[in-house]
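About this split. The held-out portion is used to measure sequence recovery: a designer receives only the structure tokens and must propose an amino acid at every position. Recovery is the fraction of positions where the proposal matches the reference. Here is one held-out target exactly as it appears in the evaluation file.
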């Protein structure tokens, strides 16, 4: 009896220990409380709000306006013209006939090659004397290739099929910077009939000019500054580097806006306007090329003069949006154009002189050239009528724009 009782007591103790271990394990495995979760979330949010020092904040680019490089240039960065005199050989009887320049040039060339020819012994019509022109960009290096244009200066009928013999190319300073040689091409040549091609006396030689001397472009002005803005002496003097930016089409408002924008973005450059150009100091901690690239990438909104460009041959008319017309009356080609203040304030009236016409009167709001042209087109006016009316508006002083007729 006692043995059975002790066995039951031992079993109960073992069961109690097992339950205690199970409860302790369950408590340890329980997830964190709400307060712990909130503190963890707050810590994570604080970490996410703090910017990462390794990842710089990207600023949005200003996409308004146009890049400064598209409407301006850095002084000193420009192209240069090359010129040379040469001869084109291999022509099919279309070379110089009366002119002796080609013949004398060939005789001189052959003499330099060890061949002697008597005067009058060479009667070749497959030779033409030409002038060779090319334009080389800034910072051209030795070995660069350029296209060249050849133009006959004698009485040659055509340069088609010829070959330009090696020609020295010199710049305006008289120095030779390259040589030109190659086959003459007549790109885009039309034909007359089925066999005979129209002769041309101007051709192109592709990749003809080989640059033999580096072309240096100086666009940075350096000088020594020995005093600061307060007049105090600087020892040793500091070297100041400056560049000048010039608008392709000068305008006071545009150059002022550009200087203001550059001063805002590059205060250390101290932009100033000198003789219509913007002068900037290259910061000491910046490389010249990278600084110029940053300046050229600045966007501004240019302000242009009101202009109307008319191509009389093609009939194309291009105008800006700021072209306005004062009150005026013009009569042309069976129609009357009236831009009046009263009784039509700032309006355009177009009255055909032909009373049988359906469009007896048109009244348009505003007084822009575009509205005038639309009204004239509605009335069936031709290109020449529109051009004549624009010229009359310009001559009367009612057209507030520059009229350019090509």
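Reference sequence for scoring:
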């Amino acid at each position: 009896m006692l043995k059975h009782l002790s066995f039951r007591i031992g079993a109960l103790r073992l069961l109690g220990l097992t339950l205690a271990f199970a409860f302790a394990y369950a408590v340890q495995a329980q997830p964190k409380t709400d307060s712990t979760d909130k503190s963890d979330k707050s810590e994570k949010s604080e970490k996410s709000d703090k910017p990462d020092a390794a990842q710089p904040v990207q600023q949005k680019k200003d996409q308004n306006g146009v890049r400064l490089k598209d409407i301006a240039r850095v002084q000193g960065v420009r192209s240069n013209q090359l010129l040379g005199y040469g001869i084109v050989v291999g022509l099919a009887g279309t070379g110089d006939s009366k002119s002796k320049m080609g013949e004398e040039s060939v005789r001189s060339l052959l003499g330099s090659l060890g061949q002697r020819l008597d005067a009058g012994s060479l009667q070749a019509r497959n030779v033409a004397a030409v002038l060779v022109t090319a334009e080389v960009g800034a910072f051209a290096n030795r070995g660069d290739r350029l296209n060249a244009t050849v133009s006959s200066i004698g009485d040659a009928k055509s340069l088609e099929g010829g070959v330009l013999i090696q020609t020295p190319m010199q710049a305006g300073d008289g120095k030779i910077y390259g040589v030109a040689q190659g086959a003459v091409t007549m790109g885009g040549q039309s034909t007359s009939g089925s066999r005979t091609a129209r002769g041309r006396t101007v051709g192109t030689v592709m990749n003809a000019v080989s640059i033999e001397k580096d072309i240096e472009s100086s666009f940075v002005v350096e000088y020594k500054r020995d005093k600061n803005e307060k007049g105090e002496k600087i020892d040793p003097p500091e070297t100041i580097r400056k560049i000048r930016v010039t608008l392709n089409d000068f305008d006071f408002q545009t150059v002022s806006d550009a200087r203001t924008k550059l001063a805002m973005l590059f205060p250390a450059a101290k932009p100033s306007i000198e003789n219509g150009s913007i002068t900037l100091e290259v910061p000491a901690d910046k490389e010249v090329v990278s600084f110029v690239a940053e300046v050229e990438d600045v966007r501004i909104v240019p302000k242009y003069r009101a202009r109307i460009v008319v191509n009389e041959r093609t009939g194309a008319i291009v105008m800006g949006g700021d072209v306005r017309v004062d009150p005026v009356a013009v009569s042309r080609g069976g129609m009357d154009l009236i831009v009046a203040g009263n009784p039509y304030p700032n309006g355009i009236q177009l009255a055909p002189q032909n009373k049988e016409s359906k469009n007896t009167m048109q009244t348009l709001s505003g007084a822009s050239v575009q509205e005038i042209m639309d009204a004239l087109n509605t009335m069936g006016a031709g290109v020449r009528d529109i051009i004549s009316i624009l010229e009359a508006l310009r001559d009367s002083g009612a057209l507030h724009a520059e009229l350019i007729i090509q």
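Annotator remark: Residues 32-36, 44-60, 190-198, 341-366 have pLDDT under 50 and may be disordered.
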